[in-house]
Amino acid sequence: MAQETPAGDLRLANLTKTFGPFTAVDDLSLTIAQGSFFALLGASGCGKTTTLRMIAGLEEPTSGQVLLGDRDIAGLRPYKRPVNTVFQSYALFPHLDIFENVAFGLRRRGIRSVDSQVREMLSLVQLDGYERRRPTQLSGGQQQRVALARALINHPQVLLLDEPLGALDLKLRRQMQIELKRIQTEVGITFVHVTHDQEEAMTMADTVAVMNAGRIEQLGAPADIYEFPATAFVANFLGQSNLIAGEVSGSNGDDTLVTARGARFSVPSARARADEGPVYLGVRPEKLHLAGAAVQVPAGSQHLEGTISDASYVGVSTQYLLRTSWGTELSVFVANSGTQQRFAVGERAVAYWDPRHAFLLGRRADEDDRTTPVLDQPVGASS
Amino acid sequence: MSRVSRWLAQHWVMGVALLVLGYLFLPIAVVAALSFNRPSSRLSYDFNEFTLDNWRNPCATSDMCDAVLRSAQIGFLATVAATALGTLMAFALVRHRFRGRSGLNVLIFLPMATPELVMGTSLLALFVAGGVPLGFWTIVIAHVMFCLSFVVVTVKARLAGMDRRLEEAAMDLYASEWQTFRRITLPLVLPGIVAAALLAFSLSFDDFIITNFNSGTTVTFPMYVWGAAQRGIPPQVNVIGTAMFAIALLLVLATMLRGRRARRSAITAAVPAPRAASRS
Amino acid sequence: MSILAHVPAGSGQPASPPQTARSARYRFLPYLLLLPGAAWLLLFFAVPLVQLASASLYDPEGSLSTGYALTWAFGNYPTALQQYWPQFSRSFLYAGMALVLALLMGYPLAYAIAQKAGRWKNLLLVCVVAPMFTSFLVRTLAWKTILSDNGWLVGLLRDVHLLGPDGRLLATPIAVVLGLTYNFLPFLVLPLYASLERLDYRLLEAASDLYASPLKTFRRVTLPLSMPGLIAGTLLFFIPATGDYINAELLGTPNQYMIGNVIDSAFLVRLDYPQGAALSFLLMSAILAVVFVYLRRAGTEDVL
């Protein structure tokens, strides 16, 4: 990093990148507060990595600005930017040992005495004693930490992480998520983290931006996005949702009224993204409860009837599919708390929910119900 | 009985392979044996009597040693030139887009698919038509030409297999274009360049057909052997042949052993140090 | 993402002035890098071929001392072919026979190294290349010793009556074909090995699990999957073998001469350039034709 100041927020202004006829990033504008842990979440090909590479300087924007504080860095070569990257699959230099990998950035900036800094950094990532090893002699998790140390030692104003945990197995990934969060808190540098793993994004980031087709669909704190998604894409990309096609039929005080499949429902107006025309009535599977008959549904709840078409026992919960009279299968997660009634496939059942847990999203008139597959995986997770 | 036939069914391929390897090594063994031979007559190719004279006195026929030296000089010059030109071409081909790429690829591929005889005669036709005197330098020119394609292909393969992200990472870590090339690209491509140079040298050193057409009166080692085959081969030729074989083989085996040792230490190192293991 | 523009080239629409200058500078770089090598190949490979073509059309009455005139003497071709048809066809016959032998030896060898050698793989691979560490000519001369009339091999073959009491190996077509096979075998084995090495052993297990006999497994799985290496290896073997004349010269007699011997003497002994050039061109065209037909046929899905 050339100068310590002027630090400041990272701002992307109307950033666009096209590859021939393909628009990878489409007029993207966003502000990432200094010192925050920011996640860009999206399926592969959504433009998140291209965005990251434009911040790093590895890709030239077709148009738009990358501002760090008040300075536009979009035209600078990568080595002139106070920005460092942890690359996907790490890109450790195979011909240099761990010490020289970590010292690389310092040496290129002409710093002579790197010894103490490198050792300090290696101990921050808990790799003391590994100085003379080669990258190929380390495990995946260790390589990942070397990549992190190699970037952090330069005290960049912004640290970019490109799917940094993608190559690790599940257990190690969870450990590293906590580790990364700890280190970010410790060093206080702005982290911009690109991932397709919704759980990873939610665990670590203060702010998550969900990207789709080169644009940001929604930006906010993980819990806010999850509890009140802005679009059908977000509702299904971040966790699962049951989206039932309906029409707004009016309002009643603080509630918006919806007609769907001949039945009437209500949603608090504060949780409605649309107040007229075609909408989706959305409820998360874990917000649905099951009862044997309509009379057992508590007062104040709303419900739909159907037949249990599938029940998968997954340990912490049982995941049911409830086939409605018009054929849509709703997913319902029932916690295995031991107090819940069990249902068998073929049984009639009623799914009910508290209207405060539902949400309304705008819908194109030609779109039908959208529910997610039973598998507990976000769309595009296998990229 | 069925155990025998099952064993045969599983191992006959290996058996055939070893026989074929024997076939490949048979002449080498003969060359080595003949290097210790005192031939009964100049034109005899049979083993007569054991002697160490040939090894003590490899340059007894001084023409031969001159020819070996000349081949080494030509090989050196051709290797340096072909490696330099070929490496530049490989970089351009892997790293840049430009017009005429497919035409160029054909131009690089063709010399490898053309019989040496045709390349040798066509160069001769050119040199004669251009009034270029044949000799040392026309051999060098010819050798650079046919080594070039092999260098391009070898370096290109290494370069194409290199992860571009390493260079991006270096640039991200404050290395300018030149520093990135010097610190990352070059060290990583170097094994490919070295392999290409070794290949070029061995091709040049051993070339007979193309050299034969373009050498004039200059005598390289293969040319010397060719000429001597008519008059009777001095046994020292077999000394050179054996020595070449032994040196090259030792070099290759040494590199292999080094590689194996590095791999073995990689395996031991993969077991993490106890302290780090307890923490991570 | 595969569409990443490469960094040093920095093409595309530049976002700011300094990068425009960069792009301009880097646009010429590839041509600069290519220039010396490409020029060398043009000047000393392509131009000579043109020169050879024109030399083949020189007036056959000319000579090196009196000079040649380009008279578009197409008659050089039929004349040369007529005169040297035996050597010409012999080149392809010997190279073809050597190829068959080499395939019979090389395929098991490549297969064994790729699939059966385990930790000895690299060492065996070195063994395939190692014979090439000695000079081509010295190796060929060693065959002269092995095949000589009073050598052990001929003695053995005479004892078991595979050869008559006066039977010879040296100075026969057998010696030449054996020499060709020997000298170019590694060129066949290496690409074949590369193909077979990539062959997943589990595919063979899957095939035998699906009731394929070993022979069927070979025909239906191993052979088709090794096709790229087989094609490359065959060409790398066949092209130099056809153009070779060292084996015919050292292990054979004029009765075994191949077209290379004729071309060699045309250029270096008889100094009949038009004829030598015409024969060179004929050889190249014939090889190209064989290669082309072969590639066309091998290109089809089911080779057998």
From TrEMBL, chain A:
InterPro entries: AAA+_ATPase (IPR003593), ABC_SmlMolc_Importer (IPR050093), ABC_transporter-like_ATP-bd (IPR003439), ABC_transporter-like_CS (IPR017871), Mo/tungstate-bd_C_term_dom (IPR008995), P-loop_NTPase (IPR027417), PotA_ATP-bd (IPR017879), Transp-assoc_OB_typ2 (IPR013611). It holds the Pfam family TOBE_2. The keyword Nucleotide-binding applies. Keywords: ATP-binding, Cell membrane, Membrane, Nucleotide-binding, Translocase, Transport. Residues 10-238 form the ABC transporter domain. Transmembrane segments: none annotated. This is Polyamine-transporting ATPase. It comes from Micromonospora gifhornensis.
Automatic annotation (TrEMBL), chain B:
It is found in: Cell membrane. It is a multi-pass membrane protein. The chain crosses the membrane at residues 12-36, 74-94, 106-128, 134-155, 184-205, 239-257. InterPro entries: Bact_Polyamine_Transport, MetI-like, MetI-like_sf. Residues 68-258 form the ABC transmembrane type-1 domain. Pfam families: BPD_transp_1. Keywords: Cell membrane, Membrane, Transmembrane, Transmembrane helix, Transport. Its main location: membrane. Belongs to the binding-protein-dependent transport system permease family. CysTW subfamily. This is ABC transporter permease. It comes from Micromonospora gifhornensis. The lineage of its organism: Bacteria, Bacillati, Actinomycetota, Actinomycetes, Micromonosporales.
UniProtKB/TrEMBL annotation, chain C:
Keywords: Cell membrane, Membrane, Transmembrane, Transmembrane helix, Transport. The keyword Transport applies. It is found in: Cell membrane. It is a multi-pass membrane protein. InterPro entries: MetI-like, MetI-like_sf. It comes from the Bacteria. SUPFAM superfamilies: MetI-like. The chain crosses the membrane at residues 28-50, 92-111, 123-142, 170-194, 221-241, 277-295. Its main location: membrane. Residues 88-294 form the ABC transmembrane type-1 domain. The keyword Oxidoreductase does not apply. PANTHER family: INNER MEMBRANE ABC TRANSPORTER PERMEASE PROTEIN YDCU-RELATED, INNER MEMBRANE ABC TRANSPORTER PERMEASE PROTEIN YDCU-RELATED-RELATED. Belongs to the binding-protein-dependent transport system permease family. CysTW subfamily. This is ABC transporter permease. It comes from Micromonospora gifhornensis.
